[in-house]
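Reopening: structure tokens for the zinc ion complex, inputs below.
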Amino acid sequence: MYARPLARLIEELQKLPGVGPKTAQRLALHLLKRPDAEVQALAQALVDAKSQMGYCSICFHLSSEPVCDICKSTSRDLQTLCIVADSRDVIALEKTREYRGKYHVLGGLISPMEGIGPEQLNIGPLVHRVNQDNIQEAIIAISPSIEGDTTTLYVGQLLKPFTKVTRIAFGLPMGGDLEYADEVTLARALEGRRSLD
Ligand SMILES: [Zn+2]
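Re-run output (same inputs, fresh job):
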């Protein structure tokens, strides 16, 4: 149906989240119509972002430097830590402008089905950090789902001996991602956090 180079492009685009065969075809055909320089810039941006971005050595948020801007900031509340599954959640929470503490990104959720155990996540460094930084409150901001609840319980139990542990209130549907919540809903969820029993 497609010449080989075009088929390859469509195939690669289709691997992106939320991109089905039709969208992949539309994007590919669109790109072929764009000037060479523009396509080159896109390709270069992909390669550069992949090679230059890494993870903050303290909180594991995406960062182009060894320590991210949030961890470097001295104007934030140093003793409140918000624990999230993914960097996307940090971005969503930052957009609310309500939260002024620091973050810790777990890098996923505990999922026995997918063979992801606590040791595959950034949980060891989290416990170390809570102790070392004298964290007064650890806010778990993980949306409800089977994996989310398992992870919340696991992390909560681990941290309870060392600090106050709270969970953000969710008016969100089960499995709803933090990033899909609007800023007001997310700010309210943060405001309405309660102690994790
Ligand atoms: Zn950081």
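The chain has a mean pLDDT of 92. The longest helix spans residues 36-52. Marking as resolved unless the reporter disagrees.
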